[in-house]
UniProtKB/TrEMBL annotation:
Residues 1-16 form the signal peptide. InterPro entries: Bact_solute-bd_prot1 (IPR050490), SBP (IPR006059). Keywords: Signal. This is ABC transporter substrate-binding protein.
Amino acid sequence: MRPTAPLMLLAATVVAAGTLTACGSGSGSDTDTVKVAFIKDTNSKVTVRDDYVRLVARQFEKDHPGKKVRLIPIQASENDYYTKIQQMMRSPRTAPDVVYEDTFLVNSDITAGLLRPLDTHLRTWDDWRQFEPAAKAAARGQDGRTYGVPDGTDTRGLWFNKKIFKKAGLPADWRPRTWDEVLDAARTVKRKVPGVIPLNVFTGKGAGEAAVMQGFEMLLYGTGEHQLYDPGAKKWVTGTRGFRDSLTFLDTVYKERLGPDVSDALSPNIQTNVAAELLPEEKLAIDLDGSWLGQQWQKTGGGNPWPEWSSTLGQAPFPTQHGDPPGKVSLAGGWTWSVPRKAQRPELAWELIETFQSKPNALEWCVRGAQIAVRKDVAADPRYRTSVPGIGFFTGLVGVSRYRPALPEYPRVAAAIGEAMEAVTADDASPDKAAADYDSTLKSLVGGRTVAKP
């Protein structure tokens, strides 16, 4: 561990699949140093988040003489990152004071006793009134208390290469109305533009929530109401045709060789490969992905600067299965800055979160990170509204965006969905068999709290 006056950087990296390195030593007795853990992009060239966190840390140190910020960037796939921070938060010796939490993990980490509520601070923080209600809800536990401050949200849709589409005879203003139209476009690309991957839909266990949320659930949520969880019955759903049809869509993509090679599709590095290579090198025609992709191609901090991306790539909403209202689907996610229950400096941690989410810094992150603003004053700022090409399109999807069930058992359910996706993609199981296996596993994961739907 080497100081860089005065900011100190402690690297914690996942160096092999399933193997996590130690994240530092010491008892955490330095009362003037606040430790912050956050995810680092698996592409080392992408430093957008690192640069922003350093910027805020230096500002905090300047505004708090005698205080220091120790950064703990964790370079890992998302699944490995989740595992790492949960390990760290279990001990006062290793727990950071501030941790960057994916909102889908908040309730499971609350149940595990890993996070502390922030309500006493939020009640007297004037800026909290600027946050959208949906953003506040994303960090709220089932006990009604709030365990994090969100720094932005995101939506999902289709990115497509207009140059490849022109070669294939497809329109530059492509707007598919059904799943079949998405597949038909991919088949047209395969037939008319050989050597190009027609369609990427993240799948399997390796990509984690990228596969489950922006792959499978983007499909599932377009097949009907309450296909995953029934909030009225407070039960998880089994036996739906929508679940089987979503797996069948994936089966079609990979059986017809419309997607990446199966070994590449199931790799934990597929997200990095898509953003750093396949899209900028114009080897991929259609990508079902997130609103943040533009950050990857920025001149400063982007992993692969690509000035032409805004004119080369188009965006289209992902359609519902048969075009039923509202006609398009998106899921919204996001991350929060939280304080572990075993943090040694919780008061200093809160002051750092306030600095992260001041209006100027929140605006800075939304601009740098291609984030969709969750503060009303940031959303109204002219700099935000003109920050990244396509931000208007993806912000427009917020109104139709759905959210994952904010329940403690969701991460376990998501893992089971990933297994079903992988079984179909690898041709180890038919969609019907994978769905049946999921139903069986689901019942044990949620203590039998399931309801069967056709």
